[in-house]
Amino acid sequence: MTAGAGLLASDVPLAEAYDLALVDLDGVAYRGHLPIDHAAASLTAARSGGMRLVFVTNNASREPEEVAGQLTGLDIPTDADEVMTAAQACAALLTTRLDPGAKVLVVGGKGLVTAVRAAGFEVVESADEEPDAVAQGYAPEVGWTQLAEAAYAVGRGAWHVASNLDLSLPTARGFAPGNGALVGAVRAATGVVPDSAGKPSPTMYRLAVERAAASRPLVIGDRLDTDLAGARGGGYPGLHVLTGVSTARDAVLAVPGERPSYLAADLRALLAPHAAPELADGWYVCGSAAARVSDGELRLDGEGIDLVRAACAAAWAAVDGGQDLDPASVPELTV
């Protein structure tokens, strides 16, 4: 099943309509080290109903076993083979160009080191060892020394591959610099644009779908520019939950390549049918809510998640049809 151009409808709960959920971690299953309300119960219920889960994360610093352990500790029992990390995707991307035994300078945590070694490459620590590639992923310990070695190697011709390009990283205290910010330092020093294995590239989704032999996958994420852009890029339906980075207003203003197929307040949406807005007398109507764009302004009637869905339908249709939409007319929407 592939994603349509706008919001989709489902007459049955999403956990019945799709056989595999590709679930983001930060902002969806948990926030930092804290649980997100309804996440554990909803994922457990979806799994009990037959939906398989694979947790897909742009975090490349940790081993799948560590991620599985954290999820299990948050009442989401998970095995390591149910985790797909950006480190694994990065190593898979390296295999498309490098021969087994090639030297790779790894800048990142042990998860990336393990993945690169498991893919058959020799891990080195210095640009003077003439690596064929630089694999760069986020880890809290990454500092100037490692970034400098990466810049030296890339400047000498090594292939630069990033596990992901997330500029920010959600933590319990707020947003911190992500791998994209660190990759940016190497790019600024070398002028070389890196390739990326993580979201929004659909590589991880494809690998996870192949691993699970799934036929009806659903991507679940909180970031439009990574999770949902990756879903669109891979042709997978995407569920945007409003428990993380991207807000309801962000969804209304989303560019076509980042738009979700479904919208919900949280993961309880897996256990419920989804209505799609319908056009009636110039208004996009969803449940008891309605929205339209008139004279370049978004006009709203109603509240809750149905209003967000109606607003998205009205805004997307207007913009795609060549109308102007004043972003100032789009308020912060609460659910």
From TrEMBL:
* GO cellular component labels: cytoplasm
Q: Where is the GCN5-related N-acetyltransferase-like domain?
A: 288-327
Q: What is this protein called?
A: Haloacid dehalogenase
A Pfam family found in this protein is Hydrolase_6
**TM regions (residue ranges):** none
The record's listing under InterPro entries reads: GNAT-like, HAD-like_sf, HAD-SF_hydro_IIA, HAD_sf
List, in alphabetical order, the Gene Ontology terms for molecular function in this entry. phosphatase activity
What's the superkingdom here? Bacteria
